[in-house]
Write a structure and sequence with these properties.
This protein has 461 residues and is α+β, with helices and mostly antiparallel strands. Helices cover 39% and strands 13% of the residues. The protein folds into two domains: 4-165, Creatinase/prolidase N-terminal domain (Creatine Amidinohydrolase, Chain A, domain 1, 3-Layer(aba) Sandwich), CATH 3.40.350; 169-459, Creatine Amidinohydrolase (Alpha-Beta Complex), CATH 3.90.230. The structure holds glycine and manganese (II) ion (MN) (2 copies).
Length: 461
């Protein structure tokens, strides 16, 4: 955990900026895998981590905006718990680490909520993403479970997004630790990518690297020779010569900050010339985007600039044609680049996505588009110093999408479908880095993972 004063200061911001009432921030509880004693690996709620900090199941935080005080609720271990799990610090100690004014038994929370509701006090809570939390909120607040989501506090969501979007030096250090673990994961995957090995062997090994740092992966490992399937979690294929392997994987730091890195490498270690051509277009889109990142710049514009680099590169190869700016504004490039350039990164890999993507990535000025491709851009708004975000352009040849667009005769002025057919079995390429917005521009976080054609071929030798 950070120093207690860090958590107190964050809660003080809530007290200063929320109009009135109580802010209820429930931590997560253990979730059984197949029976009560066999639980999934515990993951604390990110907003609870941010405002209180303790990484233990069964805790809830409360901030009384009107009285300006914070309470941590939880139950001390009983002898039975101690026999199975050993002696752990009491709730009082966790409260001291969180810098709260009081700690109380969890059973007291229900009564406090009842009293607040009967006095008409506003209880602010965030949209829950787990069923068990919906049911606990239903019990505490006497709101039917089907109405919990719509009763989440707009005011609290906006304040949490405002605070969590701007990273402190301590948080940036944590993200860099997570990127450094990802460095080991990715360079190991590169060295293992030989014909005859199965995807699952590499995926299992790199997840093990994350776990060996005592940290889980920050999202399920994406690793595939079918990289055109954007989030492919199937790891059953044997690697064969001539294929590309896309690995999109990251770890958490000890304090649960995420990394999210993607590399695409040729099985066996040597790019073919057509792979190199496509790879270098994606790399240019990445590098130009990173160069354009600075405070005040709209990420939507940087996304569109990356789309233009991709469309321009594909035009040089005869895959696209016509006026590039027109192609991009019409969305023709989305046949090959159907996703967004990136998203916020922090305690969550898609930071704060549980609070609502449009709260995090858009605002009154920059509104989400509904055009295919651009609609999937999670972050469009203007950047601020100390935002951390991913930059992840890609080019994919997705046979079902190609077939659909071709039969619908979509964008025939901009796409040479006959040429596209010759790339049908190409797969996909994505390259992703984690980037800090600085006063002067940007900085790629963590140890640089090999990225250029020559760096990748060198490490795979
Ligand atoms: N790792 C998922 C993503 O890049 O968004
Ligand atoms: Mn990723
Ligand atoms: Mn990402």
């Amino acid at each position: 955990m950070f120093e207690p004063s860090v958590y107190s200061a964050r809660r003080k911001e809530l007290i200063n900026n929320i109009s009135s009432g109580l802010v209820l921030l429930p931590g997560n509880i253990d979730s059984p895998m197949n029976c009560k004693a066999n639980t999934y690996r515990f993951r604390q709620d990110s907003s609870f981590l941010y405002f209180f900090g303790p990484d233990r199941q069964g805790l809830t935080g409360l901030v009384d905006i009107d009285e300006g005080k914070s309470i941590l609720f939880g139950d001390d271990d009983e002898l039975d718990d101690i026999i199975w799990m050993g002696t752990r610090p009491p709730i009082r100690t966790l409260g001291e680490k969180a810098g709260v004014d009081e700690t109380r038994a969890l059973t007291e929370l229900e009564e406090i909520m009842k009293q607040a509701t009967s006095r008409g006090r506003k209880i602010h809570f965030l949209p829950p993403y787990r069923t068990e939390k919906i049911l606990r909120l239903e019990g505490w607040l006497d709101i039917h479970h089907s109405k919990i989501a719509e009763n989440a506090s707009d005011e609290l969501i906006k304040e949490v997004v405002r605070q969590r979007s701007v990273k402190s030096p301590g948080e940036i250090t944590e993200i860099e630790k997570a990127v450094d673990i990802a460095y080991s994961m990715h360079t190991t995957a590169m060295k293992m990518a030989r014909p005859g090995i199965y995807e699952r062997e590499i995926a299992g090994t790199i997840e093990g690297i994350s776990l060996s740092h005592d940290n889980p992966v920050s999202f399920p490992v994406i690793l595939s020779i079918n990289g055109h399937i954007l989030h492919n979690h199937h790891h059953g294929n044997e690697l064969t010569a001539g294929k590309l392997m896309v690995t999109d994987a990251g770890s958490e730091s000890g304090m649960h900050y995420a990394s999210d890195i993607t590399r695409s490498v040729p099985v066996g270690g040597k790019f073919t010339s057509r792979q190199k051509d496509i790879y270098n277009i994606v790399l240019k889109a990445l590098q130009d985007s990173i160069t354009s990142i600075r405070p005040g710049e709209a990420y939507k514009d940087i996304h569109l600039q990356a789309a233009a680099v991709i469309a321009g590169g594909l035009k040089e190869l005869g895959i696209m044609k016509g006026d590039i700016q027109e192609a991009v504004s019409n969305g023709a490039h989305a046949l090959f680049f159907p996703h967004g350039l990136g998203h916020m990164l922090g305690l969550d890999v898609h930071d704060m996505e549980d609070l609502g993507e449009n709260y995090v990535g858009y605002d009154k000025e920059i509104i989400r588009s509904d055009q295919f491709g651009l609609a999937f851009l999670r972050l469009g708004r203007r950047l601020q110093e100390n935002f951390v975000l991913t930059v992840e352009p890609g080019i994919y040849f997705i046979p079902p999408l190609i077939d659909k667009w071709k039969s619908d005769k979509l964008f025939t002025d901009f796409i040479d479908y006959e040429k596209v057919e010759s790339y049908r079995d190409f797969g996909g390429i994505r390259i992703e880095d984690d980037v800090l917005v600085t006063a002067a521009g940007s900085r790629v976080l963590g140890t640089p993972v090999p990225q250029t054609v020559s760096e990748i071929e060198e490490i795979m030798k």
